[in-house]
Predict the structure.
Amino acid sequence: MQFIPYEIKNGAENMQIDSDLLENAIKYKLSDPFFRLYGWSPACVSLGRNQKSDFLDFDLLKKNNIDCVRRLTGGRALLHSDEVTYSFVCPFSYLKNGENVVQSYKEISQILIDSFKKLRIALEFGGEKKAKGHMDYCMLVSTGADLCYQGKKLIGSAQYRKEGYILQHGSILYDYDRALLEKIFKEKVDTSTIVSIKEIDSTIKKEDIIELLSNVNNR
């Protein structure tokens, strides 16, 4: 596995790097996976591949110095701010069940499950939670691809597949601003369904998460 160390970029740069990793893997028929960690500056809303943007108030985003980009992957919008983001690129053949979407999520996400055990944070896969209303904010909707802590969503992930390769990336919520989320997404943020690292254990720093995931090759 090739590890790309944590770096902070703007939204467009982060999405371009993920896209380039995938395209290069396809072009050169790479067999080893890439695992990347990154952050965002300024904060950024990312829209799912086919998601409409008509719910967004772009004046509000500009006022709060928040960028907006579109992801390769599907799903609903995220506010990338106080989080650690990961991406993983690999060929189907790297995984035992690479052709199967659900099983490939589980195999890739096992990296996160095993790593967080070291912090005594037991993660499990989420169940299906049907959206009530619009629910444009991704963290409010739980799927079998997401990782939860005690039934609350902590990590939201999404995939894009092309020519026998997978790009999976996801948001690990370190902390969040509920009031800002509700302004952006124009809907109530039910904090009984989501959780942040800071809420689980306030002594854990973001740097601890970065260091933890930087050592996945040493598992």
